[in-house]
Amino acid sequence: MNPVNTVEWSDALLLDFEPMDKVHREFVDLLAMAQTAPADALPQAWSAVLDHTVHHFGREDEWMRKTRFASADNHILQHRVVLNVLREGLAMARAGDLQPVREMAGELAAWFAKHTQSLDAALALHMRREMSERAEAPGHRDSGPHRGAHPH
Q1: Distance set, CA 103 to CA 106, 107, 110, 132 (Å)
Q2: Which of 24, 32, 77, 126 has its CA 20 to 30 A from that of 118?
């Protein structure tokens, strides 16, 4: 059974911010495995998607908070909603109710493409600017995507 919306990595998902691009490639690979998993492997595959996504979203949420990203509230809310859906899917998969999970996988694939090309693209641009400003700041050598404490 093939989901309507299959996920596949493409250059349209590139954000030119390697920390995000790397985790997005991993997400696409895991979701693709879940979409093609046989019935007996779907709960484990869905669990891998959930585990990855908890860390993936947590990292982005941390970046948004630390850098005071203007659109953080909406972006973080979308992350919470998706994580709740993934958790519901895992409970269904473990209970043997696989069809709704396969449908979720297709919907998640469609959502991910839109989310990446809109909210994540804005965050990637913001993070590139943050890193550029930090690199240009006199005496500041922090190359990570985190804003340090600054006196007011």
Answers
A1: 5, 6, 11, 41
A2: 32
